UniProtKB/TrEMBL annotation:
InterPro entries: EF_Hand_1_Ca_BS, M28_fam, Peptidase_M28. It comes from the Bacteria. This is Peptidase M28. It comes from Polaribacter butkevichii. Residues 114-324 form the Peptidase M28 domain. GO terms for molecular function: metalloexopeptidase activity. Keywords: Signal. Residues 1-22 form the signal peptide. GO terms for biological process: proteolysis. SUPFAM superfamilies: Zn-dependent exopeptidases.
Length: 346
């Protein structure tokens, strides 16, 4: 009888130990690679050939093609079961023609929309990690459609893949501690207007916004990198938070091994790209940012910026870098520290 009781006790001890070890393993296991692997060149290509097709008429702000674009984005989020922070079936933050025309000198614009979706955080839901890209492009000029496959169809579709990866993790009970907002802004080509509207009318308080990871053109290769396409330009990562810069570097070293080019991060660079995409409207409010960019090319702002010229394997790799960075920021114990002053705009 004593032997039998001893055997039961031993089995119970082993079972408890195994359960505790499994719990520890579950806490410490890095699941990010599993979900990053769901971001594929094939999916990006499928989406982009639709989003940058002639049917979308160049997605000009407020025009019928842009309305088709926002419907495409909403339909995707609905299909994935990713909620809107606006509640219910409303994924559109209205940006009025009055606001657009007041802030732009580029012709008379019609009412437009930002598209918002989000995944609520499990532990720190009030802290928000924003991933942004602009959904608009140049529209139709002189009878030619400016499809904007790279600018910024590439960033827009990258967000869809990142959102799907986060959602798969969330459904498996793995994610994220902080809330993640997927923000597609309008009117970038008219003067960063959609992001300006959001930061002046935020759905989540800017004080609770941890960072903005902004993606604007990541599907091509510029002339400076024709011999080595394994690169991406990073702009702004170290401007406000040394922690964000270090996280970005560490994540890249661990997972993606892309050559991070900081040429355009130089305050003296004449292109001034730090001030020229939607992240800047967050940075102005002392929110740390990273701007992911492949540089300009011969098809920049031309009708020839078409989806057949995108390097989809490279687009997928760069998209995974953004995902890994967002995953780390969203799941780390402490919020990013803002330890640097905003550079003065010269």
């Amino acid at each position: 009888m004593k032997k039998l009781l001893y055997s039961f006790s031993l089995l119970f001890f082993i079972a408890c130990s195994s359960s505790q070890n499994a719990s520890k393993e579950d806490i410490n296991t890095d699941y990010s690679a599993k979900y990053a692997a769901t971001i594929t060149a094939e999916n990006l290509k499928k989406h982009l050939y639709i989003f940058a097709s002639d049917e979308f008429e160049g997605r000009n702000t407020g025009e019928p093609g842009q309305k088709k674009a926002i419907k495409y984005l909403k339909d995707f989020y609905v299909s994935q079961g990713i909620a809107s922070p606006l509640g219910g079936d409303d994924y559109f933050q209205e940006v009025s023609a009055e606001f657009l025309n007041k802030n732009s000198r580029r012709g008379q614009l019609k009412d437009s929309e930002n598209v918002l979706a989000y995944i609520k955080g499990t532990e720190k839901p009030d802290e928000i990690v924003v991933i942004s890209a602009h959904l608009d492009h140049e529209g139709i000029k002189n009878g030619k459609i400016y499809n904007g496959a790279d600018d910024d169809g590439s960033g827009s579709m990258a967000i869809l893949e990142i959102a799907e990866a986060f959602q798969k993790a969330a459904k498996a009970g793995k994610g994220p501690k902080r809330s993640v907002l997927f923000l597609h802004v309008t009117g970038e080509e008219k003067g960063l207007l959609g992001s300006k509207y959001y930061t002046e009318n935020p759905v989540f308080p800017l004080a609770n916004t941890v960072c903005d990871l902004n993606i604007d053109m990541i599907g091509r290769v510029d002339k400076a990198h024709t011999l080595d396409s394994n690169y991406v330009y990073l702009i702004g990562a170290d401007k406000l938070s040394t922690e964000l810069h270090q996280i970005s570097e560490n994540v890249n070293t661990k997972y993606t091994n892309i050559n991070l080019d900081y040429t355009y991060n130089d305050e003296n660079d004449p292109n001034r790209f730090y001030y020229r995409s939607d992240h800047y409207n967050f940075a102005k409010h002392n929110i740390p940012v990273i701007f992911y960019f492949n540089g300009t090319h011969d098809d920049y702002h031309k009708p020839s910026d078409t989806p057949d010229k995108i390097e989809y394997d490279l687009l997928a790799k760069r998209t995974r870098l953004v995902f890994y960075t967002a995953w780390e920021v969203a799941n780390r114990e402490s919020r990013l520290i803002v330890d640097k002053a905003q550079p003065k705009k010269k």
